[in-house]
Specification:
Layout lengths: L18 H9 L6 E4 L2 H13 L6 H23 L12 E6 L4 E6 L6 H9 L6 H7 L4 H11 L6 H4 E9 L8 E6 L4 E7 L5 E8 L9 H12 L6 E4 L11 E3 L16 H12 L7 E7 L5 E7 L16 E5 L2 E7 L11 E6 L8 H6 L1 H22 L2 H15 L2 H4 L4 H7 L3 E2 L11 H7 L6 E6 L3 H5 L5 H6 L4 E3 L4 H8 L1 E2 L2 E5 L13 H13 L1 H10 L4 E6 L8 E4 L7 H9 L9 E5 L4 H8 L3 H18 L7 H16 L1
Parallel strand pairs: 2-8, 12-14, 16-17, 16-19, 20-22
Antiparallel strand pairs: 1-6, 2-3, 3-7, 4-5, 4-7, 5-6, 8-9, 10-11, 11-14, 12-13, 15-17, 18-19, 21-22
Helix pairs in contact: 2-6, 3-8, 23-24
This protein binds adenosine-5'-diphosphate (ADP) and magnesium ion.
Length: 655
């Protein structure tokens, strides 16, 4: 949910900046004041923020403190490779000042700071991928949108929930005292920037409160909010002393615990502290679903604190969107979004990992090659899977998790072969016994309900739940009371092909190959089938001829009870649903013909068998073929022909 970490050397670190703004940036190396427009997405977000987050006003402070904390982390990190960026003796921290008279709050940090160009780019645009789609997805319903914005991460703009003017003054650690910047906006369409002189490196953000938000301009009130939101921030947050002796100048005192939360022992951290810390690292509004805090000692030494959010972030499916953990090495922040510590299918996990073994100048490139990372990755993966298993012990809670992240977890078996079985145990599907489309049946549950003679896990795959649930291929299974998985997520067929089996039982597509119910069929069934084949030999021959361009074979089947006909793929062909997914992704899929199967028990098939008129025979056979395409959700090649044939037959009916 966060922006990619900002590069510290900055010739042009503004990837998504509109050309016009870039040009402005160059003009503005003069001290003169410029007025600029917010990027249109930023404008939209600002507007929403102001209008839909009323019940969550206090969070502006968490966001400002979080930004200050990030900036301090970045300065400390930058100083690892360039000591001049942090002189000895400088104590890094955050000050919060309140001016009741002026009705302002100021949050000051001595972190990395911003140049004029950076202020324009970072505070005037939103560089998150998928922002435009996200904004399009908003409903206009303020309550719902407030929730969505929480998942998007509100950040700096949340200041405008309580402020009618925000002033940011900053000086980058790489800039001189006369290269400071003042950025100011009333939260409407525009902001001003000008170059200023600033003695201290770092940033101060001043909120001028709206007249009806004056309650926040109280030292007492603010202290309690700081305590609530910033206690576990690892740097000191200071405020002026409340009560001082007569005539004495008030001094700053540290309001928070200022100890990195993950370094504390589990027993010393309260639920609320864990929850607040989650909000700080994830930028989420809502409480997390579950977390796991562990210290590993031995060959490798590290601490991890991993969280599973309650809601999926808006950009979960953007491949390029940031993911991963915050990496610290011996408490020193190293990077955001260290993605090497967890597999892609667990990209929804948030949290921190603090290693004692890695070097302080570790880079992404090094992380990719370091073998110690591999063993940390597999241990952390296991922790997350254990956490999910724990969630699964409460059905209702697990359903909430599954609805948010199930689709992503389904990527697991393909990506993480070693944990295939563990993941398979966590999967949930709709089946012929579920009510509606809800995916709530486990494979273990399915296997437990299998018939004594059953040795396969049967499934049908379709574009959507309704088509799957009404597939003609299910008819014989319904008749025999055999449960079938109804796969209707795009990824499902692919998933099943990677699972291959569960608990020693192979997966079997009910729309593939000759119907083979194994021991579920008795010898009477088989004798009956042979008789049927004999009786309808002539019919099958005729239809084979008629459809020779469209299908690879025609045969009688006993898999149908209600439908007259259906199509099946042959044993080694790609499943239909997989084919559709690949085709819609623009991939070339090899041409393959299917097998047309007819139900001997259906009156239309008998009618066809008795039809002496060749024209009518052809029309009826073609209609049955087209219907079997329609029933599985496929498109007809020539829908108009279907309609005219059907109408011809209908007219004959009434004649
Ligand atoms: P996020 O923190 O998720 O990146 P924000 O909207 O909170 O998003 O902040 C936007 C950007 O503005 C930050 O990424 C950072 O580059 C910059 N910024 C905000 N506050 C500060 C600060 N106190 N010091 C330095 N840079 C800051
Ligand atoms: Mg932020």
């Amino acid at each position: 949910m966060r922006r990619p970490a900002i590069p510290l050397e900055i010739p042009d670190s503004r990837p998504n900046l509109p050309e016009s703004v870039k040009t402005f940036g160059i003009l503005m190396t003069t001290a003169q004041k410029e007025t600029m427009g917010f990027q249109s997405e930023a404008k939209q977000l600002l507007h929403l923020m102001i209008h839909s987050l009323y019940s969550n006003k206090e969070i502006f402070l968490r966001e400002l403190v979080s930004n200050a904390n990030d900036a301090i982390d970045k300065r400390r990190f930058a100083a690892l490779s360039d000591a001049t960026l942090l002189e000895e003796g400088v104590e890094l921290g955050i000050n919060i000042d309140v001016d009741e008279e002026a009705n302002t709050i100021t949050v000051t940090d001595n972190g990395i700071g911003m140049t004029r160009d950076e202020a324009v780019s970072h505070l005037g645009t939103i560089a998150k991928s998928g922002t435009a789609q996200f904004l399009d997805s908003l409903t206009g319903d303020q309550k719902k949108d407030a929730q969505l914005i929480g998942q998007f991460g509100v950040g700096f703009y949340s200041s405008f929930i309580v402020a009618d003017e925000v002033t940011v003054e900053s000086r980058s650690a790489t800039a001189g005292a006369d290269e400071g910047v003042r950025w100011r906006s009333a939260g409407e369409a525009e902001f001003d920037v000008e170059t200023i002189t600033r003695d201290e490196i770092g940033t101060s953000v001043t909120l001028h409160l709206k007249s009806d938000e004056a309650e926040f301009a109280s030292g007492w009130r603010l202290r309690s909010i700081v305590k609530k939101y910033a206690d576990h921030v690892a740097v000191p947050v200071r405020m002026l002393e409340q009560a001082t002796e007569e005539g004495a100048e008030p001094d700053y005192d540290v309001v928070n615990t200022a100890k990195a939360l993950w370094t504390r022992s589990r027993n010393d951290v309260s639920e609320d502290e864990y929850k607040e810390f989650y909000k700080l690292v994830s930028h989420d509004f809502a409480d997390p679903l579950i977390w796991s805090h562990n210290r590993v000692e031995g060959k490798l030494e590290y601490t991890s604190l991993l969280y599973i959010p309650a809601k999926a972030p808006f950009d979960l499916y953007h491949r390029e969107s940031p993911r991963g953990l915050k990496l610290y090495v011996q408490r020193v922040f190293i990077m955001d979004e260290a993605e090497q510590f967890l597999p892609l299918y667990l990209r929804f996990v948030r949290g921190v990992v603090d290693s004692s073994d890695l070097s302080l100048n570790v880079s992404r490139e090094i992380l990719q090659k370091d073998p110690t990372i591999d063993s940390m990755r597999s241990a952390l993966t296991k922790r997350v899977l254990d956490m999910i298993e724990k969630l699964a012990s409460d059905e209702e809670q697990y359903q909430a998790f599954w609805d948010e992240f199930g689709q992503v977890l389904k990527e697991g078996p393909a990506e993480d072969f070693g944990n295939r079985e563990k993941i398979a145990g966590l999967l949930r599907f709709a089946t012929t016994i579920s009510e509606g489309a809800v995916q709530n049946q486990s494979l273990a549950g399915y296997v437990g309900r299998m018939k004594p003679e059953q040795d396969k896990i049967y499934y049908v795959a379709a574009e959507n739940y309704h088509t799957a649930a009404n597939s003609p291929h299910l008819e014989i299974f319904r008749k025999k009371g055999i449960e079938v998985l109804l796969l209707h997520d795009r990824i499902d067929e692919w998933l099943v092909s990677h699972l291959a089996e569960f608990d020693g039982k192979a997966f079997q597509d009910v729309a593939r190959g000759e119907l083979d119910l194994g021991d579920l069929e008795d010898s009477d069934d088989k004798a009956e089938q042979e008789k049927v084949e004999e009786t309808y030999k002539g019919l099958v021959e005729k239809i084979r001829e008629l459809l020779s361009d469209s299908v690879s074979d025609v045969r009688m089947t006993h898999r149908l009870t209600d439908s007259p006909a259906c199509l099946v793929v042959s044993e080694d062909d790609m499943g239909m649903q997989m084919r559709r997914v690949l085709e819609s992704a623009g991939q070339a899929v090899p041409e393959s013909k299917r097998i047309f199967e007819l139900n001997p028990g259906h009156p239309l098939v008998q009618k066809l068998n008795d039809e002496p008129d060749m024209d009518r025979f052809n029309d009826l056979a073609m209609v049955l073929y087209d219907q079997s395409m329609l029933a599985e959700g496929s498109q007809l090649d020539e829908p108009a022909n279907y309609v005219s044939r059907l109408n011809k037959l209908l007219l004959e009916l009434s004649a």
